[in-house]
Amino acid sequence: MSADPYSTRWRVLALLGIAELFGMSLWFAASAVAPQLRSIWGLTTGEAAWLTTIVQLGFVTGTAFAAVLNLPDIIPAGRLFSGAAFLGAAANAAILAAPGYPSALALRFLTGFFLAGVYPPAMKMTATWFRSERGLAIGVIVGALTVGKATPYLVRAIPHVGLRPVVLTASVGAIIAGLLVAIWYRDGPYPFVARPFSWGHVRDIVRIREWRLATASYLGHMFELYAFWTWIPAFLAASVAASVGGRYRAPRAISLLAFATIAIGGLGSVWGGLFADKRGRERLVAISLFMSGGCCLLSGFLFGGPIWVLGALAMAWGFFVISDSAQFSTLVTESVPDHSVGTALTVQTSLGFLLTMLPMQLVPLIAQRTGWRWGFTILALGPVAGIAAIRRLAAVRTSAKTTNFSVSS
Q1: DSSP letter at 194?
Q2: I need a surface site. Which of 35, 118, 264, 402 has the fewest CB within 10 A?
Q3: Are 371 and 299 in contact (CB under 8 A)?
Q4: Residue 255: helix, strand or coil by DSSP?
Q5: Backbone angles phi, psi at 335, to 5 degrees
Q6: What is the pLDDT of residues 172-228, one digit of tens each?
């Protein structure tokens, strides 16, 4: 495929990447300061975990709501993004005035709900500017949101920074994101056709075999991803403590390492997009799942060892665990009709984030019973299932290309 003759698309991609980075910083804003919130409200480990899990639930509810009402294919993506970013910023900042844990949970739920209007629309907006190199472009967006989600851990690692700066930095970032898109974004030369509302729209999407297989592999990817992101700080802290024979008392160093582990996924996403555009999306997905699944299994064997060894493993894991994420979205844009892209992306994302809630709760339960050494092992089930689904999708797409070639000949 020849390159798109629109030089401005790279400036638009930079704009959307910056907006996505700032907007998605809301996601882990409470997780990064969970120790302070646990102290303030006297929370257990399980209750603190819900500060992150409830964001997933809110996001799932938001994406399901948007999909059923066909909002991503009815409302212009730029308007949806900006409005959602502003509302998410308000909900996140309000946690500072929350009188207690129940109110904080409600606000975190709303934050996730509004983020459903930030993530999927950004991918659709990017696709309107890219036909060629679409895998790379969406990879940049996923890389940006990955760094954005890690940002609260970076802010938390700054000496003498407490609860309020971490939370407010994320909210200010989301406001900037909304303004960037509202003021400067315009759809590209390949806009997706708007469609009228239909109750059967989601059903029509689910009937598409390629969408089902791409989504099945995506679910395997998501089974691993968010549980890893959520619990890697606790895993690293427990490993360091085990290596020195007691409690490790340098939380800011762990926050910095956690930031690096998550943020390196930004490079992984860009690499994944470049690789996928040149050598195939299915191949990239299979490689990424194999590598991240291998890191998952190795984590138990390296637990308690030298921090530089476990840190290197965590960085490699952080690189590959997200390097395939954008390609599932790209596969959707290539497998459904243009008028269904927004809703198809939203449904896929909704199912994936719904699944994440299970492993996010399982990992700490396993860690409580057996220790953190083997807490992550169960996550390897996701890559195994994802590889099986993506191999099937590759076979289906190859067969379709062969059939089309034979007919045209």
Answers
A1: P
A2: 402
A3: no
A4: helix
A5: -115, -10
A6: 999 999 999 999 999 888 876 666 656 567 788 888 899 999 999 999 999 999 899
